[in-house]
Write a structure and sequence with these properties.
mainly alpha
């Protein structure tokens, strides 16, 4: 009965039936024998069938890869020859054929990314926020992304488009917060003089993105629905956002610069501790995106530490590669045993809401 209820809930989320209809269908179907006997053996078999490899469902075969290559090549050629307004027309036509009719996953991802890039180019021609003060023209620049991506999601239900809509909406909220603080302070250059406040606001928005990803993740514990795909993309964006904002908030470079790579060696403990925290979070929620996102910054930190010594250029480059590669291999090969140890340390009420270990 529990599985039948989850099926009806998923049908309601996808708009196939209303929530009220799902509630009325549950007893109707149960009385007529349409149910699943929930025993300990059935639950165990269900969790055993669950895959712990975090396989992305947007890659279904080489047919998708071949079509995606064709989509990319065709759009790049069109981008170079046709006017700017011709690109979204091509994206819509291809989406109607490949996404709506043929339901191809990887081409849907590539078309969503193409729409995002086209929106970025369009907004760049209209607004130039990087040539002015923080917050000036930035809100108008970001505002176009959630609108167009939300329309695309409403038409084709691509998980990546919803994830990008959520991320761009949070970016829009961030710019609005920046402008509000500037207005209240009466200083247009407030964040230039108070970079710590800027880092704190960015960290709060990164936490909001992570909380949203966790909401989708916990709603699909066994990762069988599109909620898991949406959570995958949100985690992919939340992890670097948390890393950058946390390191910026906890450490400052010379002359008040935040996240200054030239002085990374002085803040290596902060970077390593932040990456370790992201790795622990990734183990708890069983998302490898949190682990992989911090490896680049960890490599930069190790590179800076070794460079301060007397090692030659070749030595500290290869040492960095060895250390980062060893971390990847240790965590990758021992992911499930490490995760079981972490889950045992959590209260049962929390562990039972997470993916099986």
């Amino acid at each position: 009965m529990t599985e039948l209820r989850s099926i009806l809930d998923e049908a309601a989320r996808q708009g196939l039936i209303s929530s009220e209809a799902g509630g009325r269908l549950l007893p109707f179907l149960t009385e007529r024998g349409v149910s699943v006997v929930e025993t300990q053996k059935a639950v165990a078999a269900e969790e055993q069938a669950w895959s712990d490899t975090e396989t992305p469902r947007f890659v279904r075969g080489f047919h998708d890869v071949l079509i995606t290559i064709g989509v990319i090549v065709a759009l790049v050629g069109l981008w170079g020859l046709a006017p700017l307004y011709a690109v979204p027309v091509a994206i819509i036509v291809l989406s109607e054929i490949l996404v709506r009719r043929q339901r191809l996953a990887l081409p849907a991802v590539s078309l969503t990314i193409a729409l995002f890039c086209w929106t970025f180019l369009l907004m760049s021609r209209v607004f130039t926020p990087w040539t002015s003060e923080i917050g000036a023209d930035l809100t108008e620049f970001v505002a176009g992304f959630p609108i167009l991506l939300c329309v695309y999601y409403a038409l084709y239900r691509v998980p990546l488009s919803l994830a990008l809509t959520i991320m761009s909406t949070l970016a829009l909220v961030l710019t609005l917060l920046l402008r509000l603080v500037q207005w209240l302070s009466g200083n247009p250059a407030f964040f230039v003089d108070h970079l710590g406040v800027l880092a704190a606001v960015a960290f709060l928005c990164a936490l909001g993105l992570f909380a949203t990803a966790l909401y989708f993740d916990l709603g699909d514990r066994l990762r069988r629905t599109t909620r898991s795909d949406i959570a995958f993309w949100l985690h992919l964006g939340a992890a670097p956002a948390l890393l950058y904002s946390a390191v910026s908030l906890l450490s400052f470079g010379e002359a008040g610069r935040i996240f200054d790579l030239a002085n990374m060696s002085a803040r290596t403990p902060v970077v390593v501790a932040t990456v370790a925290a992201l790795m622990l979070i990734g183990l708890v929620i069983d998302r490898r995106a949190f682990v992989t996102s911090g490896l680049l910054s960890l490599g930069v930190a190790i590179f800076s530490v070794v460079r301060k010594g007397n090692a030659t250029v070749d030595t500290y480059i290869f040492t960095t590669l060895i250390v980062v590669g060893a971390i990847v291999l240790i965590i990758g090969t021992g992911w499930m045993p490490l995760r079981r140890l972490v889950l045992r340390a959590l209260p049962p009420a929390i562990a039972n809401r997470l993916p099986p270990g």
